[in-house]
Amino acid sequence: MEIVIRAIVVFAFLWLLTRAVGRSTLGELSTFELVLFIVMGDLVQGAVTQQDTSVTGAVLAVGTFTLLTVGLSWLAWRWPERLRFIRGEAVVVLRDGEPRMKVLADQRLSMADLVTSAREQGVRRLSDVEIAVLETDGRISFFSYESEDADGAPDSGPQAA
Fold first, then answer.
1. If we measure between CA atoms, which residue out of 43, 56, 53 comes closest to residue 1?
2. Across the strands, what pairs with 140?
3. Which parts of the chain span the membrane according to its record (predicted)?
């Protein structure tokens, strides 16, 4: 039972940590960040299971993390308006070709990141973009003027921040 309690505490800490780190950082990891997260994973394992290397201890720890993850996803699905903080919200980072600098700063997203993401999606000039949205998973979606009705964009778009 002690493993389950430690797993819940560590899970809550990791959830808060990922919310604090921000979406743009989680979208793509550098080599150093990947190594850092792997080391953090080992440290977390030690904190959750301590000296318990049994199969039962591992199953309890992984099972607790899994149940908490599925539970949070279900809660966010069941009450999306009330629990928006679990997944976050998509935000508009560029409108009518103009970057929204305050939003970029709030999301810790640099202009270089925005331009790189645009280039990766075949956007040559930001001035050709009607709207760019930082999605909840850290990716950026670009919608150009010419694809206004044919892009398959959802009707309920992101909220402007």
1. 56
2. 134
3. 58-77
